[in-house]
Specification:
single chain; about 325 residues; alpha/beta; ten-stranded mixed β-sheet; 14 strands; about 20% strand; globular
């Protein structure tokens, strides 16, 4: 079994300079690719001159995470893809547990390692933490991170267990499964395309696994910070896209509840004087309505299951019951 580490880059010259050395040092058993999304900051020249160990794939446009990886991975022949953000530091022997799980568990299609915060290595990182789940209304959350509450890493998630979705910051997937599912949905551009992918995988019977014996450190927010209104727009829009395409059960009820809860989120932004984020939610809903016919057509072509979620509302648990960590759910 061969593994390819594919780092999608867009004007990330400084990040590559900082983080590629650790990846090269600790990933001797893998082939390393830098897939460049039409950068203008001499990223490609940097890799050619200083990191000849890495192969270069040059995309013609910046199609975001989804389209960028879909294009690049057509040129990668290894059995396992590791889609790795350019702002990730890996640790010694990080790949060994991943190899072991893929080799010993043929039903495992997707893997995420433990993701800690590069700036505070005793805490989990926002984007994925110790593996992702979905609540009864389609809201994503993680072991180790619920909304903005981040847990310390005390060894509580050093296990190997099934999860619902894996973070795109460090996302391992079998090539055969990626091709079976036709890759990422390019209409997402960025954010939550990995959740949509894992949801489609789940609906077709594939397993996603968290491997807490492998650790990486993620900077996070290097492309879009969590306070950026564009990130709010993409997260709210893409979450609704994902729900329509993949959720089983009474879809009309789910959508109505989600739209109401999104309205409460807008009210919270109002009290926080975050006007641009309110506008971002409004734009996300407008985009959702305009794309609804296409989404419903996609839904007819996909499988859905009713057992996708944790039987709770993460919004209710967090804001009403004051549940700030995964173990109290």
């Amino acid at each position: 079994m061969k593994i390819a580490i594919v780092i999608l880059n867009w004007n990330g010259k400084e990040l590559l300079e900082q983080f590629l050395p650790s990846i090269i040092k600790h990933s001797k058993q893998a082939t390393i690719y830098v897939a460049d999304n039409a950068s203008t900051d001499h990223s490609v020249l940097l890799v050619k001159q200083h990191f000849p160990e890495a192969k270069i794939i040059q995309n013609t446009i910046n199609g975001g995470y989804a389209k960028g990886y879909n294009q690049a991975l057509k040129q990668v022949e290894e059995d396992i893809y590791c889609l790795l953000n350019s702002d990730v530091e890996v640790s010694e022997n990080w790949l060994n547990p991943i190899f072991e799980v893929f080799n010993n568990n043929l039903e495992t299609a997707i893997i995420q390692p433990k993701i800690l915060d590069y700036k505070n290595k005793t805490s989990f990182e926002y984007a994925g933490a110790a593996g992702g789940f979905i609540d009864k209304y389609g809201y994503p959350f993680c072991r180790g991170r619920i909304f903005n509450s981040i847990e310390k890493d005390l060894g509580q998630y050093n296990d190997i267990t099934n999860i619902f979705w894996a973070s795109g910051a460090c996302f391992f997937v079998r090539k055969s499964v990626f091709e079976t599912l036709n890759g990422f949905d390019e209409s997402f551009f960025a954010h939550m395309e990995e959740i949509d992918f894992c949801w489609r995988a789940f609906n077709q019977g594939f397993k996603t696994t968290y491997v807490g014996t492998s650790t990486v450190y993620h900077v996070g927010g290097a492309t879009l910070h969590t306070t950026n209104p564009k990130k709010t727009y993409l997260n709210f829009r893409n979450s609704l896209y994902t729900l329509i395409k993949n959720a089983g059960g009474n879809l009309f009820f789910l959508v109505i509840i989600r739209l109401i809860l999104d309205g409460f989120a807008a009210i919270k932004f109002l009290f926080d004087f975050k006007w641009l984020h309110i506008l971002a939610i409004l734009k996300a809903h407008i985009s959702f309505y305009s794309h609804l016919p296409t989404l419903l057509k996609q839904r007819k072509e996909l499988d859905q299951r009713n057992d996708y979620y944790k039987k709770t509302s993460i919004v209710w648990a967090y804001f009403v019951n004051n549940c700030k960590n995964f173990n109290c759910l």
